[in-house]
Amino acid sequence: MEKINLLLADDHRIILSGLHALLNDEPDISVVGQVCDGEDALAFVQNNPAVDVILMDVRMPNMNGITATREILALYPKIKVLGLSMFQDDEFIIEMVNAGAKGYLMKHATKVELLDAIRRVARGETYFSQEVMQLVFNKVKGTSNHQSSVPIPPIDSQNGELTERELEILALISAQMTNQEIADKLFISPRTVHSHRRNLMQKLGVKNTAGLVRQAMELDLFANNN
Predict the structure, then answer these.
(1) Separation between Cα atoms, residue 200 and residue 208, nearest integer Å
(2) Which burial class, exposed, middle or buried, applies to 111 when counting CB atoms under 10 A from its CB (0-12, 13-18, 19+)?
(3) Range picked from 58-72, 79-93, 145-159 for highest mean pLDDT
């Protein structure tokens, strides 16, 4: 079994110790280092480029997790970064995603969720905790109440605008609702939901639900529009 080489980055040593104890016995995970700020994280990967995943705290001294993520990925784009924070703030989430993070979860996550997030991110997938998904839902819902369409920057030849209905469905997808659940909530058919989902993927240039959420965050669709 090929192990995931994991670097822990957090400015609280007690959290580092707890994470190390929690993860070190997993047969597919090897904790290769622990650092307390972004500068040390950057220095570590420069000396140990075989790191696969960094569990990166957002708020750290000297260099925060957002800046560290951006600088590390500019040098080592194959490394996967998973944002970690006790702050459920949409600005942090959006900035981490824009910096290149593959996911974001809260420090009070369970061991099961933490392991799932690390393994998914290591495989190249994205992962957002339920709290983050709910925040996304609330922000998108707020956006859809203020405007009928959102211009989308050029992505490919299929780009266009998101309608109010598409924003609403994107919000419900982000809340991890199924096509049938969305159909029941909006009083439309599952086939119509499927069509909207397909159109959203085409417009945003993604292949799955996680990609929809990630691309929408990168395009800043969740900003308040007052």
Answers:
(1) 10
(2) exposed
(3) 58-72
